[in-house]
Amino acid sequence: MAYAVEWPVRWPAGVQCAVALTFDFDAESLWLANDPANANRPGVLALGTYGAKVGVPRILDLLETEEIRATFFVPGTTAETHPGEVEDIIGAGHEVAHHGYTHEPPDPDRHDMVAMEIERGLEVFDRLFEIRPAGYRPPDGVSSALSLELLREHAFLYNSSYKDDVVPYRHVLPDGSPGPIELPEQPTLDDWVYGARSPQHDRPPVPKHDVLEIWSDELAELHAWGGLATVVMHPQITGRPMRLATLRDFIAFARTLDGVWFATCREIADAFADQEADAV
Ligand code: ZN
């Protein structure tokens, strides 16, 4: 582990714990990738449409009120379908990162498919918004050595999908060379498991106060550990009134703790890279 960084990560001065508010802006792409037949099921697609139509504007309002910048992981097809919302995200100063092109999970056995998903996504961001995302989160969190190698080939700064740590670290590729920085996340701080309802996810939603308690308890301990809280949200879930209130109250709780740094994924990855450079 030649590129491993010593525990604990040294955050910037005055920081005890980093909080990355991240939004996977899937919109309809998730439902189309789950089942192409959903193209003819407007009632299912509408779950995703809500994220673009209501969720993103409401989330942007909350982030503006709270003066927090967040990271939105956007599939290429969502950017093509909802360019106005992506422009609003960029215009408000948030980070836009890569979340595949079609939202089909990257198959580690299909090099051309994984490469195409990354390259077509990059092409869309360049063509529509003249931006080049620094970070990537694979759809459905399907990570592989192939993805990491392709991310390095395309000079991505970071990946955010592995669930094996509570602080950023540098990937080591199979040949022993350094890969992208990892900003780990995991389901405890993911809105999907608490709030998704659909024909494919037929389960009772978890009440607001239960989610707030879980997220707050996790953050309090991560804070004590000096860790990174990567909160994974979806505009079609957290854009619902009750879930948005959960986020609002979670932010208020986080602000009761000393040294909490709300930052974009890119800012956190940059801080990690600076630390690596200092350690050399
Ligand atoms: Zn997604």
Structural account:
This protein has 280 residues and is of the alpha/beta class. Helices cover 46% and strands 14% of the residues. The chain contains eleven helices and nine strands. It has helices spanning 29-34, 42-66, 76-81, 83-91, 111-129, 145-153, 192-195, 208-225, 235-238, 241-254, 265-279, and strands spanning 17-24, 71-74, 95-98, 135-136, 158-159, 169-172, 178-182, 228-233, 260-262. Strands 1, 2, 3, 8 and 9 form a five-stranded parallel sheet that branches. Helix 5 (111-129) packs across helix 6 (145-153) and helix 8 packs parallel to helix 10 (241-254). It is globular and about 55 Å long. The model is unreliable at 1-5 (pLDDT under 50).
List the helices and strands and how they pair.
Blueprint: E1 17-24, H1 29-34, H2 42-66, E2 71-74, H3 76-81, H4 83-91, E3 95-98, H5 111-129, E4 135-136, H6 145-153, E5 158-159, E6 169-172, E7 178-182, H7 192-195, H8 208-225, E8 228-233, H9 235-238, H10 241-254, E9 260-262, H11 265-279
Parallel strand pairs: 1-2, 1-8, 1-9, 2-3, 4-5, 5-7
Antiparallel strand pairs: 6-7
Helix pairs in contact: 5-6, 8-10
Residues 24, 26, 30, 99, 103, 139 line the site of zinc ion.
